[in-house]
Amino acid sequence: MSNNRSSSSKQLPIMEHFFTIQGEGFHTGRAAYFIRTAGCDVGCVWCDVKESWTSTPDQLMTIDAIVQEVLAVDAKFVVITGGEPTMHSLVELVNCLHENHIEVAIETAGVHSLDAPIDWYCFSPKKFMKPIEEAYEKAKELKVVINHISDFTWAEEHAEKVGETCQLYLQPEWEKQDKLLPLIIDYVKGNQKWKISLQTHKFMNIP
Ligand code: SF4
Fold it and tell me: C-alpha 18: how far from its chain's center?
């Protein structure tokens, strides 16, 4: 059934891949095929996908096989996430998806250089590893997870460095949402360049 015009036997370590709804940030509510690469060197203490930190040989998938999975469900939008997806060369995967007219977003902590012509760069900086300058230049969306009241100041430091058109989001850490969300609501009322991002996929009980 494929209309895939290119072919690649290059492999990437993939922890999981699934068709779902993007639950957070700018593309919230949009059908999206998630490709979660294996491997992360950032080490956030509150990480909810710690099983993505390492990769094993049995997780290797060819780019052809990944793209075929996306085409099989006729997804129009792909989100490459992790783990930390910029640990890998993604140019062939993104080019193959583009050749099939599929829009591609990445969610990254911005700690390594990205070698692929991505359509939407969601930059989610983490305190556990300093981002590189490229992340601020490429960011179309800055999504800062608020885990502590001091994180508002930290979020502003990043917002000062991204481009003028970058969309700015504050997202409560899921486990502390009850305590932090009222603070974030007040903060956004007083600092209206920011919007709130919630992990709506968790409310919908989908991956
Ligand atoms: Fe987990 Fe993402 Fe942090 Fe890596 S960057 S430790 S995958 S939250």
Answer: 14
Find the 20 Cα to ligand 1 centroid distance in Å.
Answer: 20
Digit-by-digit pLDDT tens for the chain (207 residues) are 344 445 678 999 999 999 999 999 999 999 999 999 999 999 988 787 898 899 999 999 999 999 999 999 999 999 999 999 999 999 999 999 999 999 999 999 999 999 999 999 999 999 999 999 999 999 999 999 999 999 999 999 999 999 999 999 999 998 899 999 999 999 999 999 999 999 999 989 999
DSSP 130: P
How many angstroms is it from 83 CA to the middle of ligand 1?
6
Q: Record the pTM.
A: 0.94
Residue found under tokens 């290797």: 60
**Residue 129 gets which letter from DSSP?**
B
Alpha helix (H) residue ranges in 14-100: 63-72, 91-99
The pair of structure tokens assigned to 127 is 């305190």
Q: Is 40 in the pocket of ligand 1 (CB under 6 A)?
A: yes
